[in-house]
Input
Amino acid sequence: MSSRCRASFAFIAVAALVAGACNREERHSRAKPIGETVPAGESPDTIWPGGTVPQTLDPRAKLYDNNAPAISQGQQLFTQMNCVGCHSHGGGGMGPALMDDEWRYGGRIDQIATSIAEGRPNGMPSWRSKLTTDQIWQLAAYVRSLSGQPSKDAVSSRAEAMSNATPQTLAPREPAHTSDTAEQ
Amino acid sequence: MILEPRFTDSVADLPTHKFGPSSLTWWGIIGFMIIEGAFFGLAFAAYFFLMGHEQGWPPEGRQAPNLLWGTLFLIVMLLSEIPNSMIKKAARERDVPTIRGLMPVIIGIGGVLLVIRGFEFNNLNCRWTDDAYSSVIWMLLFLHTTHIITDWGDTIVLWLLMRTDLGWEGRRLVDTDENCLYWRYVWLLWIPVYLMIYWVPRL
Amino acid sequence: MSAHVPERVRREDERLARERQKIARDGPKLKGAKLEARLERTWSRPRGIIGWLATVDHKEIGRRYIVTALLFLALGGVLALAMRVQLAQPDSALISPQRYNELFTMHGSTMMFLFAVPVMEGVAVFIIPLMLGTRSTAFPRLNAFSYFMYLFGGLLLWGAFLLNIGPDIGWFAYTPLSGPQFSPGKRADIWAQMITFTEVSALAAAVVLVCTILKTRAPGMTLARMPLFAWAMLVVAVMIIFSMPAVALASSMLISDRLIGTNFYNAYEHGDALLWQHLFWFFGHPEVYIIFLPATGFVSVITETFCRRPVFAYPIVVLALISTGILAFGLWVHHMFATGLPRVGYSFYTSASMTVAIPTALQIFCWLATMWDGRPRFQVPMLYVVGFIVTFVIGGLSGVIIASVPLDLQLHDTYFIVAHFHYVLIGGAVFPLLGILTYWYPKITGRMMNETLGKIGFWMIFLGFQLTFFPMHLAGLLGMPRRVYTYPAGVGLELPNLLSSIGAFVVAAAVVLFVINGLFSLYRGAVAPSNPWGASTLEWAAASPPRPYNFAHIPVVESRTPLWDAEGELPVVTGLRVDEKEILLTTVVAATPDLREPVPGASLWPLIAAIAVGVLFVSSIFSPWAVVFGAIPAAIATAAWFWPKELKRHPEPVIS
Amino acid sequence: MTVGGRASVVPLALAASACSYQHYQSTFGNAATEARQFNILFVIFLVICAIMYLAVIAFLVASIARRRRAGEANTVEEGRHHESNPLMRTALISWGAVVGSGLVALAIASFIADRSMASAAANEKLSITVTGNQWWWDVQYNAGDNSKMVRTANEIHLPVGVPVRIYLKSNDVIHSFWVPSLAGKQDLIPGRDTDITVVPRKVGIYRGQCAEFCGAEHAKMALVVDVDSYRDFIKWWQHQLQPAPAPATPLAKAGYAFVTSRNCSVCHAIAGTPASGTVGPDLTHFASRRTIAAGAMPMSEGNLYGWVEDPQSIKPGSKMPTIGLEPNELHAVVAYLETLK
Output
């Protein structure tokens, strides 16, 4: 490989690192509100029968997925909104466990966001009128971090609370699951 | 105005190496010893600071580390002082064959110690994420482990050098002498760490 | 020597002994231009970029330290200007809160860790060997390693800042704000790892300075004849050795809290947020004396030279330095008066904080007495000394005010404190630094700085400083807390903040003027003789700029002011090698010649070791396993640094 | 800032006290025993330090002037073999003695002031618990039985002359409770209980701010302390115990419906309504407060509209999200909030 080509490889690698790093730390406390309530027509449900090719990812995903401030806000919301009541710290209880890779309604960030916004049968309440879209997506980002899907650098090792789980930064990373029901 | 030199006496016949405080590397080693001493001293301070908060130490529901491996470590380490002192005396007497003979012994003891240390880490009866007590215990053990590994590495490199012809040079003997001094410092530091990890929780 | 030496080795010893006689040494037979030509060849480093990276010459490393530190001063200053523009008027939305928090964190961290301590070490590393009459520092490769670690620490912090992942937690990063939950992402880790870099660099430089000052002084320079700047740097180096491990331990514990989930600072798991404050300030307060004491050394040097008189009561000044160094370790809780610790403990720290003012007061008396008894000439360095005394004493007295608990409870973490520490840091350290840079500029570059530009610069920075920082006393009393990105209108804070913002630009202009003066004089300044100010210490016996070997013959010292007592000729000792780098070691107290020590040659290994340790530190932000796997290249690099080039014996030992 | 200058500032401030809420946030407020002792001690320290400073400057000026007249002898030999005359030696010793005794005097003055402050606050009559959160103050008046417990936020009412002990806790990071006109600051540290005692002496409105850096909006974490006469305080207390008044106008009713069913009730609590979230400040008597969003803005309809419509543009990074309300919902919510007197 000519040195010029090797140099360009190095440059691309650095740029990727830079881009990755930038997004990971970006705080989206947007001053101007984006009038983005959930789009008027309910977002079509994200479970695709017959395992067809999943829909394209929601553009908002890259703002929240792997974004450290969003995951940290989601962590605080998770306790403040008493999700711990049913899901405990991700191990599950009355609600399903969030730390494993079993996703009844899809493990992708937009699918989790829809689960939170719409609610699900067997007891998951709909939070669309209680939380803003921004908060719902932050919670979705944190739920994904419970099952180890985002990168290790974006999650926090523990909360300022009783230590309840092994640190996320040490947990092995899980690949993102589109929807399990399709595979069963 | 450049000053003209007025020649007084000559230093040509001064030696190029001496043992003890005359040697420059002795002062360097003492400098690093004080740095590590300050490091460990502050780690002890943090240990007692966190201990001050608790009624019981270790906090309730937590068992103190098992004594076996820590005590074994202490004994083997104290025994290693025997070859260590012999090497130090041999270095002072330019007895390079004995040095070349004994250094593998002390390197071997170092290896054994590291193995025992592995078992020690398993017998602390706590993970570092459990609470501040476990974190401090793990920190003390980790600090001492890095201390041992650095000196073990130094000893290996020095041994490889002593096996060459340069082993007979005065400066290398001074290095060996100071490395033995440093090993003595490593196990001297282990005694307070040992007491704090294994015996203070049992008081 | 003993029975164990085999025949082969004994014959080898005799052969080497014979060769030893043939080694060329300086002395009456080999002196003057011929000697200097050979010494020049032996002591100069290989040419080109490799030689530039591999240099172990204390003068080049010192110059690099100073230039890098002044660059970071400029960068930190630009951040300060941005902060002042934001605070110029109330409720301004010029800079977002997140950006402003990054600005003041970077300003504080850059000024404290990347400018103040390194610039003092840089000046010391350059000047101390010259002042002590030797040719090199002890452990020159460790010195080079120390500079590279400092440089990589600065690049890490500023690289992260420019990549928008800079720290935003304040320069002392109190937990739990800097903890895993409230500082998401890697911002706080980068700050903590920068601490590890600069702390390793400062500790290495401290060991180098202690060994140089204690072991390589010119014969006859007993501790009682050592220049006051050397005393100051000795006390500072010992303080670094005892205080820096505190911040190293605290930042490593913070990184482990944030990376592997330990609970040192987790109040809900038997940890304690105050553990961070205790460990940090146990380092923090000695740190500000580490920055201030070298400046007292500078003031002593300048006062002695420009008043044509040794500093009054030398033993008092030395004892004052030592007692300041010791007392500095007993004060740290006065940073924590508002954290609700028992009041009895606080009263101890109030009295300790007051006691530390006495040694400094005595030093100030001695300088004033020297001016009273001497014949002061008010050139630029002496002006900076006067500016120092006028400014620093205000800072010292405001320090006495906030040492009292009831007063500190009102003034803690307000702009009164910001005014106090700028008075003692800029007034107490930067003024003497600008003075000493002007004073030693001819020695470092061989040219004189422009006198009129210097005087204009002094008056600008002096008056600009008062305009910037005196109103901050009032802002603090009017209730303006620290680190606020804005303040409400109508509370009476508009005028002080506006004045401070205007003053900040005057100070910036003065610093720019100083830099212009520095660069301009590099090429157009008057060529400087070896002793332009008629000073008394040994560094002025060497050429300006000094040759790579500093002195052709090692001088002998018979009094505290060798050059003033020299009467045209300098007593020297001879006998050091000419074909290999060698320095003379002397005993610690009496400085009698004791040993000849080979000096390591230029080598790339310190740089490679610094890169390996740097990679270990940076990657250990992202994964705990980096500590295990990163240690291997670092061990290899340090072993290779120590490993001699050729494994055969020499007539006299050589570190190649 | 001479004593005279300070005296003139006090009446000026009082005159302006009636209207603007940013009434007074300076240590010269002298509104409580602690602040008064601070000012007395501060003046003592200032005077003694000024004397020491003038002594140093006098010595400096004298030594500059003294030698300048003796011409600019530049010779090197001049500086050698200078035995310090005994006069200077005694001057050094006396200087050390003066500095030492000055500092001892200041230390003793400081201990006396500290002691008298502690004793003044020995028997407190009122106890409040202030809990610091990221970027607002949760205030709770402790009382014998729970029915008398008042819960409010970002505002404290104190009866003049009555010593009050404020217990300080924190839910997240370290904050610092500081009302300059009343007393010194005290940190709120998670996992530790600290407290501060104040004996207010002068009726008036005093502003305080968080003094320990606590994150993005540290600058806008302020609170207002209203020192009332005893009678007014009791009236205020009784009023605070009442639940929120039921909305009357249809617009307020629509606002009530939105607030209690939608996002607001998840975080905020309004006594007497189903809204019972504890994440955000208590809004039961929100409209009776002087400021919005922990002292970020004075309470006014315009500001209320601005804040409810888009809090992120006023306090970017604050935990209160921008809901994106429709105009009719916004009018309803603001109308209802204004009924919460």
Remarks:
- The interface with chain A takes residues 96, 98, 163-165, 176, 179-182, 184-187, 257-261, 263, 266-269, 622-624 of chain C (CB under 8 Å).
